[in-house]
Design a protein that fits this description.
37% of the residues lie in helices and 13% in strands. It has 413 residues and is of the alpha/beta class. α1 crosses α3, α5 packs across α13 and α6 packs parallel to α7. It contains 13 helices and 13 strands.
């Protein structure tokens, strides 16, 4: 039977004192980066596990993080949520954190749940999802000095808290650039009703790119609630116009699949590109913008851990996220030529996202099995900034990470 691995075992392996190992586990800011890395490597190699109950008594920390799960209305939402939650758990567990899931019908119910969870389980903090305009949850957490970060920006607000998000505008801009490069000039957009932060962001990428190419967008944007039937209805109306579009960029995969179906009886069809690259899109051969959800999850946990004073979690990899390639047939991962110059790319703590970036000096040429990849394929770069655009590398509570998605081209586009 193998001997039990203790703090003393780790200390001997890393050639440090037991106190140094304890500091790495409980107060990592006290330890130099090189020493901390050596101790963490020893912990991982030896498989050392802390006694969480004892640690909580010493530090007053529960190592528990709360995340809300919403009622799933369809399998598409479930697929996206599953990838994100899987990424959270994978990142949290090695660092000694555990994820507690809870449900709530609305923001008020979620705020009531915060009170209950903090009192009952002494959670260290929360990762919020589905941020929106006039979000009362973040205001409550800030007022009660509860550590948290969000997957999503504080739409329409200037609240100073950390967040991680995906640059939806960059995704739809890449989709639009691809369709323009393919020869399309009448390109429509199908999205959600105005007032959705995420939906408005995705629409802006299409509109800005069309305008940059001198292409008219008047009457080409249509909005409805999500769903295949809604996408088909909107697309049929567009195709009935005297000057119909030949292609469409959509805020979601269901809308794109509906639009694609609407174009099946039309000579030449209707090129369609969706968003989220769900299993439905993959099975249908639909081109779609893929969010780097594992990277998002990693950065959420890392950002929250920094707010909590824990520096043991490494940043998300600069290349493809771990969920990028499994089981996807007949695809090529595509980053529109020259599109890097239309988005910002400034490493961990680079220039303001409102400044034009320099091209990536070391593009990735990694390919998925059976695919052809363009340079810089699938790279999701991040930058840290505050709401005024200034960099904020030393303030975890003001840490903002924006990750870029990438376009997967299949039969539909």
């Amino acid at each position: 039977m193998p001997s039990k691995v203790t703090i003393a075992t780790v200390a001997r392996h890393a050639n440090v004192s037991r106190q140094t190992v304890s500091n790495v586990l409980n107060a990592p800011d006290m330890v130099r980066d090189e020493t901390r890395a050596r101790v963490i490597a020893a912990i991982e190699k030896l498989g050392y596990r802390t006694n969480l109950a004892a640690r909580q008594m010493r530090t007053g920390r529960s190592r528990l993080i709360g995340v809300r799960i919403d009622p799933v209305r369809n399998g598409i939402e479930a697929a996206v949520l599953d990838r994100f939650l899987h990424g959270l758990t994978e990142t949290a567990a090695p660092a000694g954190y555990r994820i507690i899931l809870y449900t709530a019908a609305d923001d008020d119910a979620e705020i009531a749940t915060y009170d209950e969870l903090l009192a009952t389980y002494a959670l260290d903090g929360f990762v919020l999802t589905q941020t929106h305009y006039h979000d009362a949850r973040t205001a409550w957490l800030l007022a009660h000095d509860v550590p948290f970060t969000t997957f999503g920006r504080p739409w329409g607000a200037q609240q100073r808290h950390s967040w991680v998000d995906v640059d939806g505008a960059a995704g739809t801009a890449a989709a639009t650039e691809h369709l323009i490069a393919a020869g399309h000039r009448r390109i429509a957009f199908l999205g959600w009703p105005p007032g959705s932060g995420v939906g408005d962001d995705r629409r802006s990428g299409w509109a800005t790119t069309m305008s940059a190419h001198g292409l008219d967008i008047d009457g080409l944007a249509r909005h409805a609630l999500d769903g295949i039937a809604e996408g088909e209805r909107l697309a049929r109306a567009l195709l009935a116009e005297p000057d119909p579009p030949s292609a469409v960029v959509c805020a979601s995969d269901p809308l794109a699949i509906g639009a694609w179906r609407a174009g099946e009886l039309r000579t030449g069809g209707l090129a369609a590109i969706g968003f989220d690259d769900t299993p439905m899109a993959q099975a249908a051969g639909l081109s779609s913008v893929r969010q780097p959800l594992v990277e998002v999850a990693t950065e959420c946990i890392r950002t929250l851990s920094l707010v909590l004073g824990d520096r043991t979690i490494a940043p998300a990899a600069g290349g493809r996220s771990a969920d990028d390639g499994a089981g996807i047939p007949r695809q090529s991962a595509f980053d529109a030529g020259g599109f890097d110059n239309a988005t910002f790319d400034s490493g961990d703590f680079g220039s303001s996202p409102f400044d034009p970036p320099a091209p990536d000096p070391s593009p990735s040429h990694e390919s998925l099995p059976g695919t052809t990849a363009r340079p810089n394929d699938g790279r999701s770069h991040n930058t840290t900034y505050d709401s005024g655009g200034a960099t904020a590398p030393n303030d975890p509570a003001a840490r903002r990470i924006l990750l870029r998605p990438h376009l997967v081209v299949r039969d539909s586009g």
